[in-house]
Amino acid sequence: xxxxxxxxxxxxxxxxxxxxxxxxxxxxxxxxxxxxxxxxxxxxxxxxxxxxxxxxxxxxxxxxxxxxxxxxxxxxxxxxxxxxxxxxxxxxxxxxxxxxxxxxxxxxxxxxxxxxxxxxxxxxxxxxxxxxxxxxxxxxxxxxxxxxxxxxxxxxxxxxxxxxxxxxxxxxxxxxxxxxxxxxxxxxxxxxxxxxxxxxxxxxxxxxxxxxxxxxxxxxxxxxxxxxxxxxxxxxxxxxxxxxxxxxxxxxxx
Length: 254
Ligand code: TMP
Prior knowledge:
Bound molecules: thymidine-5'-phosphate
Distance between the termini: 49 Å
Order of helices and strands: EEEEEHEEEEHEEHHEEEEHH
Number of helices: 6
C-alpha cells in the first residue's frame, strides 16, 4: 500500500491524509516535550498507550452524546479521525489547584477548588500559548460567542463524566486540556471534541496516595514515567499487553 501523505507533524502526533475525503489518520509518537518544547525526551510506549487511552475515553464520551472527531482505532499507533477545522484554543479545566494555576496565584498544589474553572490559552508556540479571555477570543474571531457557549457546555459535561469515570478506578482528575474543531455536514457546522485525551494533557493523581500518573512525571523528572501511563491504562482495563482476549472493563476501587 502506498505510504500516506503526511499533512502535519506536531510535538506528539503526526496527521496523515485519510483513506476517504474528510478523514485523517492520527499517529501517536513516543516523543514528549514540555515547557513549549524547551524540554524534549522520549517516553517508550507512550504513543501506543495514548492511542488506546484516548480511543477508550472518546468512545465513552460518544456513548453519552459528546460529538468527537474520533472514528476508530486502526492499529497500535494510529486512529482514523474526521478532518475538522481546529479552533486555535486550548481549553483547560481545573478541579484541583496544580501546575500554572498554583504557581501564578500562589495556591497550594492539591487544594480542591470550590468550583471547576475553565481557562483559555491561544494556541501559538511563538507566543508561548498565552492565556486569553473570552473578549480576546471573540474580538480576534478565533471563536464566536455561540461557539464558546457550545465549547463550555461540552467541556462541563466532559469534566463531570470523566471525573466520575476516573474516580471509579481510583484516579482524581485534577485538570486537563481539550481542543475543539468545527465539522461541517450539509451546510451545518457543529463543534466537536478533537485532539486526544491522555496522560499527556491531563493531571491524574491516585485518589488515595496523590501519586502522579501523568506527564508531570516527565515535566518534573519524577522517574517511572512509562509506569504512570501504563497504570492509567491498567486501571481502565485497556493495557494493550494484556491481549485483546484478556481485556477487562474498568476495575472498581472501593
Ligand atoms: P498548566 O497547569 O501547566 O497550565 O496545565 C493545565 C493542564 O493542561 C494540565 O493537565 C496539562 C495540560 N496542558 C497541555 O495539555 N498542554 C500544554 O501545553 C500545557 C501547558 C498544559
